[in-house]
Amino acid sequence: MPSMTLIDGMPRLIQAGMGIHVSSARLANATSRLGALGVVSGAALRHVVIEDIRGGDDDAIKLAQLFPVARYVEEILAFAPGGPKHTHAVPVDTPHPGHSAYPRRLSTIAAFIEVKRAQQGHRGKIGINVMWKATLTALPTIYGAMLAGVDALLCGAGVPMELPDIIAKIRAGKDMEYLPLTGTGTHVRMAIAEDGTASLLQERPAPKMIPILSNFAFAKRMLDVWQKEYDGARPFAFVLENHTAGGHNAPPRNKSEFTGQDSIDSYFEKVLVLGVPVYVAGAFEEGGSRADFEQWTARGAYGLQVGSRFALCRESGMREDLREQIIAANAADSLAIETDLTASPTGYPLKTVQLPHTTTEPEIYQARPRICNKMYLTRSHFETLPDGSVKETYLCPAMPPEQYQRLGGDPAETQGRFCLCNGLLATAGYDSDLEPAVVTLGESGKRVKRHWSAREIVEEILTPQYVAQKARELIPTG
């Protein structure tokens, strides 16, 4: 039986940060208070939280008022009922120097609100998943989550090489600039010195750094770079994610299909030797169960990160009708999950669930007008003008081809792309009357054939006795 001793109080089960608002504050709150690491998705929080505030969500409005910088509070509450921007569109990221700081501030306070929602009513651990390929919101999401007192930063869909430097600069109240952020090609900047938040951040521990990786080479390189460039910083743990996991997968080594060399079994022991605790994700013979927990911890893993089971549980932020369709298809053994190498504008393979009336249906995909109006997955494009100056624009291959070409991209790169911003927002119920959903699950999602609660899943993996003990311990005191 695996030891349940915790390192620095960090749980051995991570409820994964999935999609846009699938790993909602409600889900993270439910799992955290039971002794798991509850994780909220950091993707597109600017739209999620502003739409909640626009709809009069009292909880979000009250939590916004706890943010320590008045300007941010005023700006986001302008979208509340009766506010001067109640009917305005949610601002998007822009390379324009005079306009770019405003959406960053909104993303910052949105992350703060979502983490605070997840923290309410318990003393459990809360993390936030920061998608590195959503590059323009990485810095504000980390900043806002840290101001909320987040316990862990889980960073994937890219290699978060600068993460220790970002945390150190935020805690010191320093402005940040990365030209570009490693592995993204995108320039990112954020001015926070004038906020005066350094003393507040230094009163609390720095969040645990938990990179999500899919090979040994990146794990080794990260440790070497952090040791040399960031004063010997080390991650608390790695999440090693197999290519059967949901969402984005690392590209296959041979560029065309996943083989044995992409399997976690090909590098798991090598990463263990590096001396960093390891959580295993997406490599579950039993779908992310107690048996999987015992198998991997016996091999030396610290714990598991489980996603698909939680994505389909009652507390998930996924639309109920989509969850019902998936569970019904699983009961009939008919659910199809495919790895699409071209759908995602990030360039990473994406696991897509083949469901009627979603973007995976060719006729639905063709009928949807191509539009890029959320901008979370855009990347920098630089053009040298005749006068020698450099013009920066933001590109996304899910844009209309003519727009993409006009901004400097190759229209061939737009073929077969999905707009994940709109598709994943629709999966969580935002603009679902206007946009078709796109659903992503790991292969283990096929094993969910009945309705589970978050508590039942945590109990099944960590045992009812452990959960009962943690639920008592994590009740707030005083």
Rg over CA atoms, rounded to whole Å, is 21 Å
Q: What is the CATH topology of the domain at 13-317 and 448-473?
A: TIM Barrel
Total helical segments = 18
CATH architecture of the domain at 13-317 and 448-473: Alpha-Beta Barrel
Strand content bin? 5-15%
Largest sheet geometry: 8 strands, parallel, barrel
Care to count the β-strands? 14
Helix residue percentage:
25-40%
Quick one: CATH class of the domain at 13-317 and 448-473? Alpha Beta
Strand order of the largest sheet: 1-2-3-4-7-8-9-10
Q: Average pLDDT value? A: 94
Contiguous runs where pLDDT drops below 50 for at least 5 residues: none
Shape category: globular
N-to-C span: 36 Å
Look at the helices and sheets and give the structural class. alpha/beta
